[in-house]
Amino acid sequence: MTDTALTDAPRGGGADDGVVLRARGVGKSFFGVEVLSGIDLDVRRGEVHGLVGENGAGKSTFMKILAGVHPADRGTVEFEGADVAYSHPRQAMDAGLVTVFQEFTLLPERTVAQNVFLGREPRRAGFVDRGGMIARTRALLDDLGVGFIDPNARVGSLTVAEQQIVEIVKALSFDARLISMDEPTAALSDHEVELLYAIVRRLTARGVAVVYVSHRLKEIFDLCDRITILKDGALVSTDATSDLTPDELVRRMVGRPIQSYFPAPVEGTVRGDALLELDGCGNEFVDGVDLSLHAGEIVGVAGLQGSGRTELVEGVFGIHPFSRGTVRVAGAPVRFRHGRDAVRAGLALVTEDRKAQGLALGQSVIDNALLVVRSVFAGRTRAARREIPGILSALEISSRGVEQEVRFLSGGNQQKVVLAKWLVTDPRIVLFDEPTRGIDVGAKVAVYQLMRQLAAEGKAVLMVSSELPEVIGMSDRIVVMRDGELAAELPAGSAEHEVLAAATGTRESAGAVVADPRVSSDPSASTGEEQR
Predict the structure, then answer these.
(1) Above 60 in pLDDT, residue 325?
(2) In what order do the strands lie in the sheet with 274-282?
(3) Which alpha helices (DSSP H) does 258-361 contain, by range?
């Protein structure tokens, strides 16, 4: 079969419509708290079955039960016609039920082939058959149409997308009949997402079933044949994708329509003086940037992957200081050599990757909320400690208390802790880089409301986002980056094709533009990461 035929094969293209997985009445409790109750789920051979819900809905817990990480307390799971109760992930994998978790399980210093067959290396005459292992890995890669990945390549040298493919190949090496994917595109660029789409369709064309968890509704509607919705650990519904709309899906998940995502400016918000001004600013990543940011406004930054969006805010904040041009804060020239200088001048930066850059996952909520104050304003630590409970309450952070380690919080609550860390410094300029990545719908709305409130208080907000609806829905002005330069400035409410035209350098014709395929028009509804 040709690559095109595999990619374009109808979904649900397995040999039959038989059920490969049947769960009935599955329940689970942790420390006396019920997190799953009476979950029923059928997954058919050759289908992509979407599993969605807010933080704490139970998606990850259910997937871990299927994977053998947790035993179910109640109910039954039937796989390929036999009742199963796996007590270890290896049992599930050997049976052909493999889970690809969001956090990769690969060893970066070993090769692709070594990772694929880790712990079960083929042997000949008592020794590892290295040649056979490489040949089998190459065959698996070729079968998926990803022969550009070298079985001898060190995994640490691969891109995130390529590592994701290695995880899928590893699953196939177990002769998987069902693959569960947990947020598989969370760290992928738009064109890499398209590659994953093609791989998923190849799998289903061969009769492999896929359970697909994603925070992006566009992917759910693009790929899935049926969608199961969980809420508060209980089953809401299972429907054919064709019978649902994004609005109805969101309403079932969170009880509000999709139109209420982007709150309007708070009544009384006024645009004030310029708090941040860039004149001809540049470094090794961006060049010739002229930009003003006023009190009381939210300015959105759009652009393709690699256009310089993140590099712009990192330059402003002093992570990669501008080597040319002038930066003024509240009219006064400044030169930030590092982030501490920016914090002292009243800036805050909510980074793109909260886990790697924003939080100390092994520390408590209160310690994370005090990270910036302790580092930059040590003398204010005692006063800040008194303020933090009120900030945490205002952000509606759900935790077992301020001493709980943040690694046990959901993605949305982790993001709120990052916000608390900066709010306690009382910044006047707040830079957001992908502020809603990987968090659910309810948490997104909370972040949007906070941004509107900051603007109402006279602060200036600069927001980088790869989601066009988010940029358009939240921005009072939109600036577009292209090839490290500020390509355009557009008014609030600009159409997606106008933003795309500026981002890609194409010309609009008759009110339309041919969109660059790397740009997603994802409605950006999110189901986020799970809290166990």
Answers:
(1) yes
(2) 289-294, 274-282, 324-329, 332-334
(3) 309-317, 339-344
User: Do residues 188 and 197 touch, judged by C-beta distance below 8 A?
Assistant: no
The 10s digit of each residue's pLDDT in 143-200 is 888 889 999 999 999 887 888 889 888 888 888 899 999 888 766 766 778 888 888 9
pLDDT value at residue 207: 92
Query: Torsion angle of alpha carbons 160, 164, 169, 175, nearest 10°?
Result: 170
Arithmetic mean of pLDDT, 263-290: 95
Tell me the pLDDT of the chain averaged across its residues: 85
Determine phi and psi for 443, rounding to 5 degrees.
-65, -35
Phi-psi region at 32: left, alpha or beta (left = phi > 0; alpha = psi -120 to 50): left
* Helix 441-456 × helix 246-254 angle, to 10°: 90
* Stronger pLDDT, 446 or 372, i.e. the higher one: 372
Q: Whole-angstrom Cα distance, residue 501 to residue 507?
A: 6
- Are 437 and 445 in contact by the 8 Å Cβ rule? The answer is no
Q: Where are the domains of the chain?
A: 3-260, 274-358+426-504
Q: Which residues pair with 474 in a beta bridge?
A: none
Distance (Å, rounded) from C-alpha 278 to C-alpha 142? 50
d(CA 206, CA 175) in angstroms, rounded, equals 12
Phi-psi region of 55 (alpha: psi -120 to 50; beta: other; left: phi over 0): beta
Q: Provide the sign of the torsion angle of the four alpha carbons 29, 34, 36, 37, taken in this order.
A: positive
Domains 3-260 and 274-358+426-504 fall in the same CATH topology: yes
Q: How confident is the model at residue 505 (pLDDT cuts 50, 70, 90)?
A: confident
Identify the CATH assignment for 3-260 out of 1.20.1050.10, 2.40.50.140, 3.30.10.10, 3.40.50.300. 3.40.50.300
Bridge partners for 21 per DSSP: 43, 79
Q: Which residue has the higher pLDDT, 477 or 33?
A: 477
Question: Cα-flanking dihedrals φ and ψ of residue 62, to 5°?
Answer: -65, -45
**Residues 108-118, mean pLDDT to the nearest whole number:** 92
Question: Is residue 113 within 8 Å of residue 69, measured between CB atoms?
Answer: no
- The pLDDT value recorded for residue 256 is 61
End-to-end distance of the chain based on CA atoms, in angstroms?
Answer: 42
- CATH 3.40.50.300 given to domain 274-358+426-504: yes
Order of strands across the sheet that contains 19-30 = 82-84, 74-79, 19-30, 33-44, 234-240, 226-231, 48-52, 209-213, 178-182, 97-100
Lowest-confidence region among 188-202, 294-308, 376-390, 487-501: 188-202
Q: What is the pLDDT of residue 259?
A: 56
Angle at 483 between CA 487 and CA 285, to 5 degrees: 115
